[in-house]
């Protein structure tokens, strides 16, 4: 009886009041998750302090090699950006939007069937906007759905509410990707629509799926997953597909938010 009265009262509240109460409750509970995240960082720090000197020297050598590789990659990336800018000017192609990377620590994960989301340790304090793309070293992670004072909620690409335009294996025709209804404990998958009839894929011969850049949220070329199955759709004009997402998405501890950079006014 009491529960019914409370539910009826909640439904009768205006949307503005509901949004205010939701945001207030989130801001009230956020410090607990952030504090736990800082404690995990501290625990990791002290566990690293327990390594022997020889292990640290070996790790230093590996880090020096990685730094050398990254320095070369940065130089090549700058050259490619200059080449792309030159081609855009010659061919009169509109430039792709620029982004700045805002690294953020993962505070908590929610991989239930309904949510499929992350909470990160950056929010309005870092200038993160709603709808921004979130990436990691291997490709796309998701998009920001809520921004609070110093935390943000990220919908993963495995979330059924996430849709984006993609391209299969270096093709030119965009297809529609959407997160799937995934189990709480199992491999994450997505679905494809409007796949051209000439595309074939199977678990033995998967096709790489990457972002197309359409829509301006995700830049082109970010890995989404592998197309492991396609079949003709009901209308026979296209195919539908199944995408296997990277299982490491469930273990992420650090991500980056792509914040659009407004071009300078000429």
Task: Write up this protein.
The chain has 2 domains: 2-49, no CATH class; 96-261, Thrombin, subunit H, CATH 2.40.10.350. 32% of the residues lie in helices and 31% in strands. The protein contains 3 helices and 12 strands, in the order H-H-H-E-E-E-E-E-E-E-E-E-E-E-E. A 6-stranded antiparallel barrel has the order 1-2-5-4-3-12. The protein is globular.
Note the overall shape.
globular
The CATH homologous superfamily of the largest domain is named Rod shape-determining protein MreC, domain 2
Spatial arrangement of strands, main beta sheet: 1-2-5-4-3-12
Radius of gyration: 22 Å
Rounded to the nearest angstrom, the distance between the terminal CA atoms is: 65 Å
CATH T-level topology of the largest domain: Thrombin, subunit H
